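Researcher: Please predict.
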Amino acid sequence: MSSGSATAPRAPLARLRGTAKDFFTREDVPPGSWLLNAGGSAALALKVVGQLISPGLSWRREFVRQYVFAFRVTLLPATVVAFVIGFTAIGIQGGSLASAFGAIDRISAAAPVAFLRELGPLLTTAIVAGTIGATITAELGARKIREELMALEVLGINPVRNLILPRVVGLALWMPVLSLLTFWAGIAGVFTAAVVLYNSTPQAFFSQLLTLTNFIDLYGSVIKLTLFGILIGIIAAYKGLQVGGGAEGVGRAVNESVVSCLVVIGVVTVVYTLLFQAFFPEVNYGG
C-alpha cells in the first residue's frame, strides 16, 4: 500500500522530466533548433575562416562576380529608401518640431548620428538580407537539391572555398560601402526637406552637420557593417546547405534565412551598441 502510494506521485514527475528533456533536446522546435542552427553556423564560420587563411586565391573570380552582383542589386533600393526615410522621418517630422523652436538647422546634427549608428546599419542590413541573403540561400539550396554540391566534392572542388567564401567576403566588404552610400542618401533627404520645406539655408545646414558625431562613429559603423555582412553570409549559406524537400524546401529555407538574419542582427546590434557606448562614452556627448 505504501509502495503504491509512493510510486503514484513519481509518475507525473517522471512525465514532466521527460517532457522537459524533449523540449530542450528536440531539433525541430526552439530552443533545440536555435542551438542546432547556432552550432551549425559557427562550424561553417570556422570552415570559412580556415579556407580564407589557407594559401591560394582560386575563389577571387567568384568573389568579384558576387561583389558586382551585390552592387547592382542593392545600391538603388538602399539609397532610395534611405533618401525617403531621411526626407520623411527626420526631415519632415523632425523639422516640424525643430522649426517650432526656431532651430530647423539643428536637425542636420541629428541626421548623421541616426544614419551612422543605428538607422543606416539596420536599413542596409534589412535590404541586404532580403535580397543577397535570400539569393545565397536559394542558390545553394537549389544546387544541393540537384546534387551539384556533392558532384563538386567528387571532383575535388571544395564548395566552402569556391562558393561560400567568396559570398561571405563579398558581403563583408560591400556592406560598409553600401552603408556609407545610404548615409549620404539619407543626409540628402534631410537636406531636401530642411531647405525646400522649412526654408533653411545650405550654409546653416552644413555648419551643424557634424557637431554631434566624429570619426569614432564612422569607424564603429564600418566595423559593425562588416560584422553584419559576415553574419548574413554565414547564416544564408548555412540555411542553403540544410535545404531538403525539393522546391518547397528551398522556399522555406529562404524565409527562415531572412528571418534568422534579422533576428540575429537585432540581438547583435543591442550588444554592439552597449559595448560601443561603454568603451567610447564620449560619443554620447558629441565629443
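Model: The mean pLDDT is 86.
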